[in-house]
C-alpha cells in the first residue's frame, strides 16, 4: 500500500471520534455500513439538531456566532471535512464550541471528543487563517470547558496524523479492526449488532484446528 493511496481518502471529522472510541465500532459503521441508535445517540442528536440550525447567525455580547459551519482541510496529510457545531468570532479571534449532551463523570472531557475538536481546529485554522481556541459545552450541566489544544498542538497533531493513516489503511483493505482489549462497551448503540462477548470467545475454526492437530500427534 502506498502513502499516495492512503492520502486520497477524505475522512469526516466525526468518524475520528468513532475510531478513537472503538475502532471496531468505526469499522462496523464505515465499512459494514451498520448503524444502531440508542438513548445516548438520540440525546446527542437532539442537542446537535438544536445547534445545527444554519439560520442561527447572530451577535451576542460583542461575539459573532455562527452555527453549523462547514469546514475542511485538503492538505494531503489531513484531507478532512466536517461541520462544526458553532464558531464564535471575538474581534479577530475564533473559538470553536462543540456541544455534547452529558459531561463525563470526574473529568472535563473524553479524549476521543477532544481529538474530534482538534481535527475541527485543523480545519477551522486552515479555512479562516487563524489559530483558534476551543471549548466543549455540556447541555446537562449548562457549562463550557476549555480544551488545551494550543498547549499540546504538536502531540495531538502527531496523534491525529497517525490515526488518519490507520483509518485509511483499514478503509483501503476493507477490513474491520479487531475489538481492543479492555474496550468499554457501556452505552454503545451497536452492542446488539456487535455482540462483543461472542466475538471474544475463541474462534470455532481455531478450536477445530487445535483438536485436529492434537489427534494427528497422538
Ligand atoms: S459493543 Fe463494544 S466492541 Fe462492539 S462496537 Fe460497541 S464499543 Fe465496540
UniProtKB/TrEMBL annotation:
<dbReference type="GO" id="GO:0046872">
    <property type="term" value="F:metal ion binding"/>
</dbReference>
<dbReference type="GO" id="GO:0051607">
    <property type="term" value="P:defense response to virus"/>
</dbReference>
<keyword id="KW-0269">Exonuclease</keyword>
<keyword id="KW-0464">Manganese</keyword>
<keyword id="KW-0540">Nuclease</keyword>
<keyword id="KW-0408">Iron</keyword>
<dbReference type="GO" id="GO:0004527">
    <property type="term" value="F:exonuclease activity"/>
</dbReference>
<dbReference type="Pfam" id="PF01930">
    <property type="entry name" value="Cas_Cas4"/>
</dbReference>
<comment type="function">
    <text>CRISPR (clustered regularly interspaced short palindromic repeat) is an adaptive immune system that provides protection against mobile genetic elements (viruses, transposable elements and conjugative plasmids). CRISPR clusters contain sequences complementary to antecedent mobile elements and target invading nucleic acids. CRISPR clusters are transcribed and processed into CRISPR RNA (crRNA).</text>
</comment>
<dbReference type="InterPro" id="IPR022765">
    <property type="entry name" value="Dna2/Cas4_DUF83"/>
</dbReference>
<dbReference type="InterPro" id="IPR011604">
    <property type="entry name" value="PDDEXK-like_dom_sf"/>
</dbReference>
<keyword id="KW-0411">Iron-sulfur</keyword>
<protein>
    <recommendedName>
        <fullName>CRISPR-associated exonuclease Cas4</fullName>
        <ecNumber>3.1.12.1</ecNumber>
    </recommendedName>
</protein>
<comment type="similarity">
    <text>Belongs to the CRISPR-associated exonuclease Cas4 family.</text>
</comment>
<feature type="domain" description="DUF83">
    <location>
        <begin position="15"/>
        <end position="195"/>
    </location>
</feature>
<keyword id="KW-0378">Hydrolase</keyword>
<keyword id="KW-0479">Metal-binding</keyword>
<dbReference type="GO" id="GO:0051536">
    <property type="term" value="F:iron-sulfur cluster binding"/>
</dbReference>
<keyword id="KW-0051">Antiviral defense</keyword>
<dbReference type="InterPro" id="IPR013343">
    <property type="entry name" value="CRISPR-assoc_prot_Cas4"/>
</dbReference>
Amino acid at each position: 500500500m502506498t502513502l499516495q493511496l492512503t492520502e486520497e481518502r477524505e475522512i469526516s471529522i466525526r468518524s475520528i471520534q468513532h475510531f478513537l472510541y472503538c475502532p471496531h465500532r468505526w469499522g462496523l459503521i464505515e465499512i459494514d455500513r451498520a448503524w444502531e441508535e440508542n438513548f445516548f445517540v438520540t440525546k446527542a442528536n437532539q442537542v446537535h439538531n438544536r445547534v445545527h440550525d444554519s439560520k442561527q447567525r447572530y451577535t451576542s455580547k460583542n461575539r459573532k456566532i455562527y452555527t453549523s459551519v462547514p469546514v475542511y482541510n485538503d492538505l494531503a496529510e489531513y484531507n478532512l471535512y466536517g461541520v462544526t457545531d458553532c464558531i464564535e468570532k471575538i474581534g479577530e479571534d475564533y473559538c470553536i464550541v462543540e456541544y455534547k449532551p452529558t459531561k463525563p463523570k470526574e473529568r472535563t472531557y473524553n479524549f476521543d471528543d477532544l481529538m474530534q475538536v482538534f481535527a475541527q481546529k485543523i480545519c477551522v485554522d486552515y479555512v479562516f487563517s487563524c489559530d483558534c481556541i476551543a471549548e466543549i459545552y455540556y447541555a446537562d450541566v449548562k457549562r463550557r470547558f476549555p480544551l488545551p489544544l494550543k498547549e499540546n498542538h504538536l502531540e495531538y497533531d502527531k496523534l491525529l496524523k497517525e490515526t488518519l493513516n490507520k483509518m485509511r489503511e483499514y478503509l483501503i483493505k476493507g477490513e474491520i479492526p479487531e475489538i481492543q482489549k479492555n474496550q468499554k462497551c457501556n452505552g454503545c448503540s451497536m452492542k446488539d449488532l456487535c455482540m462483543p462477548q461472542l466475538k471474544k470467545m475463541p474462534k470455532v475454526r481455531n478450536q477445530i484446528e487445535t483438536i485436529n492437530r492434537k489427534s494427528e500427534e497422538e
